[in-house]
Amino acid sequence: MNSSSDANQSGSPSFCLLGSMGYSHSMDTCVLEVVVILFLTVLIIAGNLVVIFVFHCAPLLHHHTTSHFIQTMAYADLLVGVSCLVPSMSLLHYLRGLNEELTCKGFGYMVSVLKSVSMASLACISVDRYIAITRPLSYTTLVTPCRLRVCIVLIWVYSALIFLPSFFRWGKPGYHGDIFKWCALSWKTNPAFSTFIVALLYAPAALTVCFTYGSIFRICRQHTREISQRQARFSPQTEGDKGERGERCEGCPDKRYAMVLFRITSVFYVLWMPYILYFLLESAGLYHHEVASFLTTWLAISNSFCNCLIYSLSNSVFRKGLGRLFSPLFPSCHGCTEAKKAPAPVSLRPDPRCQV
């Protein structure tokens, strides 16, 4: 009896979360699940390895203290991609000898902790930018390297502790392990535990991000309006244009960097919001569907790849570091790029603007 039950549990091809969509099992495996999970796994691992290498190869990215939190998120997302190899190998029937209950609990706990690290890091990034803009003179004394390291350690410890009660059968941390039959059918969510997670993690992180970025953009808009009014009132037109451009550009780098971080945070919550809503509805017993569980879960996990994409599209310094990283692989293209960027020949006649 035990051997037969183990055989049924260990990667049984008859149990597929997307089986209700009606595809055939001619390959003796859950084809759609394998394709989705393997595709995301490759993207997440490759994308975050690129982010980590670019941060190590581009010193200018360390100008902001938020780079420590970005790298923390990159390492956490990389571990998410590596841990996703577990369900992939299980669906391909390479983990028949492992205890299914322990495996799915460990995988669900690990992914929940890693995504909690990303969520807490985004909240810390927003607080860091808020302090930098509201208290620029005392920023360096408030945000020190030692305090940054302590904050990162606390993020990992807090994330590990908040999901620990799930091992003591208090509740289910998420649906990441539902590709295992035991997780999907025997491990049930608990309304009290779900409320505990929302109250101590999801809600504080979301409220912190909304408050800090709302304050940041309100302050930037107010400063821009005051500069425009002052220049129009007290300066001549020509000098006013120069002064206005100079004063506006003085805050441009911080504002652009805040916009990049705001895009990362927005994409994170857009991809995670369907999962959080389904988590609350399913915990309350209002709605349950295996396809919705799978799609919302892996949509949320796909966010682990998005940071690399957003950086490459939004941050010019990151693009330069990315170019240096891949320049040995494409030397001809790099040479063409350098040739295009080469300055024009310098005239023999000195330019009076360059004289001191």
Write a structural description.
The protein has 15 helices and no strands. The longest helix has 44 residues, at 191-234. It has helices at residues 2-9, 31-57, 66-83, 85-91, 100-134, 139-142, 145-162, 181-185, 191-234, 237-250, 252-283, 290-301, 303-314, 316-326, 331-341. The chain has a single domain, classed as Up-down Bundle (Rhopdopsin 7-helix transmembrane proteins). It is mostly helical and 356 residues long. Residues 1-14, 238-251 and 334-356 have low confidence and may be disordered. Helix 5 packs antiparallel against helix 7 and helix 11 (252-283) packs antiparallel against helix 13 (303-314). It is globular, with a radius of gyration of 25 Å.
β content, as a range? Answer: under 5%
Biggest beta sheet summary: none
What is the share of helical residues? over 70%
- Taken from the alpha-carbon principal axes, the silhouette is globular
Overall pLDDT level? 75
Overall structural class, as computed from helix and strand content, comes to: mainly alpha
CATH class: Mainly Alpha
Instruction: Tell me the span between the first and last alpha carbons.
Output: 91 Å
How many distinct beta strands?
Answer: 0
Radius of gyration: 25 Å
Unreliable segments (pLDDT under 50, ≥5 consecutive)? 1-14, 238-251, 334-356
SSE run: HHHHHHHHHHHHHHH
CATH H-level superfamily title: Rhodopsin 7-helix transmembrane proteins
User: Please, how many domains?
Assistant: 1
- Within the CATH hierarchy, at the fold level, what is the topology? Rhopdopsin 7-helix transmembrane proteins
